[in-house]
Amino acid sequence: MRKIVVLSMITLDGVMQAPGGPKEDISGGFKYGGWTAPYGDEVYGKVVQKELNPADYLLGRKTLSLGRLLA
To answer: What is the pTM assigned to this prediction?
Structure first.
């Protein structure tokens, strides 16, 4: 059985969104996209690089459709 690792960005008030730019997901009138960018540092960058090593990914519907647009 494989291990599932969750890499999630969530605010203290429960907003979950990837660390992309402000236009990444504006559904429902959400206007705070890209909120993690100002908080990134060298340690954060190293952790993200480690997590993004080649692997099998379980993507959400919106993430998958975004990936198809970028491919």
So the answer is: 0.44
